[in-house]
Predict the structure.
Amino acid sequence: MATASPAADGGRGRPWEGGLVSWPPAPPLTLPWTWMGPSWGQHPGEIIEFPILKLNGRTMEIESTFHMYVQPVVHPQLTPFCTELTGIIQAMVDGQPSLQQVLERVDEWMAKEGLLDPNIKSIFVTCGDWDLKVMLPGQCQYLGLPVADYFKQWINLKKAYSFAMGCWPKNGLLDMNKGLSLQHIGRPHSGIDDCKNIANIMKTLAYRGFIFKQTSKPF
């Protein structure tokens, strides 16, 4: 996941993909993860990679990174399809913290970065609504875990891009990079690489004068 803040001026697994934007003087966040989902023959879906990038609210440059792999607990073995798609192999998740432990470390990281300060307004940025509307709350509900309030509002980068460019990015990050004449960074379906692409797209749109606004509806 990556985090960023917009300024007025300026297997069975898959990665989480998303981000957080905070208004000045706080930074924005990008938040993509990798997860293993029902579409791959597994239920429930489980997050196996949890990356976040914190961006400077004025320059949109990356200031801090949170990145952990997650041990799936319901279906601990990754499928060959999951590994082929994401590049995540079994050894990368074996012995890693559970989702509960990772979420606790996310909270610690957010606090260290000053993002839990009540005077700082911030919001996640995701490539689509699925990650924060369905995936994370669904897995937390299954495991009996609470969902932090900061995960309950976000900016869908696809919607922001469509507002700015006048067309819908059917193929997500690939279409957005192409539409903005940007080179795709890293490997598709890698959570940390997706975060970097989200951050780069946000930076490009912000430099063109686009103002990011929350797209999710209140829970």
About this structure: Residues 10 and 207 are 6 Å apart (CA to CA).
